[in-house]
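FORM 7B: Structural annotation worksheet

SECTION A. Query
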Amino acid sequence: MQINNLTAYLLVSHGSRDPRPDISMQQLARLLSEILPQGENFIGIATLEANIQPLHLQIQDFADRVQAFGCKMVQIIPLFLLPGFHVMTDIPAEIALAEQAISQEMTIELRPYIGSYPGLERFFAKMMMTVKSDIAIILAHGSRRADSHTPVENIAASVNAVTAYWSVPPSLEVRVQELIAAGYGQIAIFPYFLFTGGITDAIALAVETLKLQFPSVSFQLAPPLGTSPEFANLLGDLIKEEEKVFG
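SECTION B. Predicted structure
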């Protein structure tokens, strides 16, 4: 399907003071520019936090830039895996602020967050095929917001994995202890995070500690979903599916 060449795409992530997520976002945008026909001038990146500008000003700047190329629409694609407060409240509020300042000829549309895309289940299934294990743990950040874990729980159920969370129960250590007690000797851990950063560093350290604590068990830690060509293809598929729905 040919994507409307008057549409631009702004990838919005959480943001971090750690420079690595920003570098990864730039890499992801470049990979996506190779997939979508309009090229890099029509794909931008922005962050909700840890930026010198608030998100609504980043949206305004991007909209002004792509309008000079003839774009009439900017689609905001939240690179968030769970439907927390940022996805449900913060990003829509920032878009509303941006819409007050941009040209009336430009349309801003918010697309579903990446964690809600059904293709993510297939992506995880392919990832898991590359790792030999008896059982897999999908390790997400976690949230106290009601029902926010439903997407990752659904993915885990679809690929015969179990879940653990970094900030809320059940923790990685508790889940590992349960699996070892159940007789599993090869455990793969898949971080449900987009980019390498402080938390994924801490996860890697925790896994090394588990290896020392349970020397008879084999642990394999997968990388974050990140900037692989496969993930860029997934994002490209999401955009194309949304174009079929919204035109």
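SECTION C. Observations
The CA atoms of residues 176 and 187 lie 8 Å apart. The chain has eight helices and eight strands.

SECTION D. Sign-off
Analyst initials: ____
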